[in-house]
Amino acid sequence: xxxxxxxxxxxxxxxxxxxxxxxxxxxxxxxxxxxxxxxxxxxxxxxxxxxxxxxxxxxxxxxxxxxxxxxxxxxxxxxxxxxxxxxxxxxxxxxxxxxxxxxxxxxxxxxxxxxxxxxxxxxxxxxxxxxxxxxxxxxxxxxxxxxxxxxxxxxxxxxxxxxxxxxxxxxxxxxxxxxxxxxxxxxxxxxxxxxxxxxxxxxxxxxxxxxxxxxxxxxxxxxxxxxxxxxxxxxxxxxxxxxxxxxxxxxxxxxxxxxxxxxxxxxxxxxxxxxxxxxxxxxxxxxxxxxxxxxxxxxxxxxxxxxxxxxxxxxxxxxx
Length: 320
Fold this sequence. Notes:
Helices cover 54% and strands 2% of the residues. It has a three-stranded antiparallel beta sheet with strand order 1-2-3. A hairpin with a 4-residue loop joins strand 2 and strand 3. Helix 5 packs across helix 6. The longest helix has 20 residues. It is elongated and about 70 Å long. About 6% of the residues have low confidence.
C-alpha cells in the first residue's frame, strides 16, 4: 500500500491508474476502497473520458480474470457496491463481476474490522501542518485569564483537562495534538457510505469503542484520504478534546485542526468558546458536574462516569 499512498500524496493519477492495471481483483478492491470514491471517479473521468456517459462505458462488462482486472469494468462496479454510487454503471451489468466484488468487499470489511490493515504515518492529503517541534504549554496565567473572564475557578478548568487528556500535555510524544477518532461521528458526517468498506472508521457508537486502542493518527490519516473535512470533524482534539465538528472559535474544521497543532492555549480557547456557546459556564460556576458532563460529553456521559471523574479532579486541584 505504500506506493499507492505515495501516488495519492503526489496527486499522481497516472501512477494510480498504472498500478491498478497490474492488480488482481482482490488487490484492486482493497486499493480502490482505500483511495476512496472521489479518486475512483477521477480515474474514470481522466482515463475513460469525461464526455462518455455511464451507459457508454460498456453495453456488457468484459470478463475479468483472477490475474488482472479490467479497470473500466471494475471501477464502476466497485463504486456502486462499496460506496452506493451507481453513476457509472453500464446499461447491462456483469453478474460475475458484481458477485465477486461483493464477496471481496465482505472479506475486506471483516479484515479491517478485526485488525489494522493500513498504517499511515503522515497526512498524505496535505491538509494538516507538520508537527510543531515545541508546542507551547499552558501557563498559570492562561488558566487564570479564562477563569477570571468567565467567573469560574481555575480548578474547574484543570479538572476538565484532567479528565479529557490526563491533565498532562495536550500533545503526544510526536508533538501532535492528542486526538481520539470517533467512528460514529465519521459515520454521521459521511452519511454511512463507508460502513461497508471501512468498519473501523465508520460504525455505530457501540462498536466504535473497540477502536480507541488503535493508533488514532493512523485512523485519522486513513479517513482523511476518504474525506478530509469529515475526518477532522470526527476527531476530539487537544487538551480539552473538543470535537472538530464544533470548531468553536475558528471558522471551519480545517482551520480549527491546524490551530490545535500549534499550542495548548489554542486548546484552551476552543474549550472556552465551546462552553460559552453551549451555555456550560453556569454549570462550571455551580459545580453541577452532571449537567456539565451531559452538555460537554453528550447524553451518554454516564458510560464513562465523566461527572464523578470531574468532581474528583476538581477536588484534586483544590476546588471547594
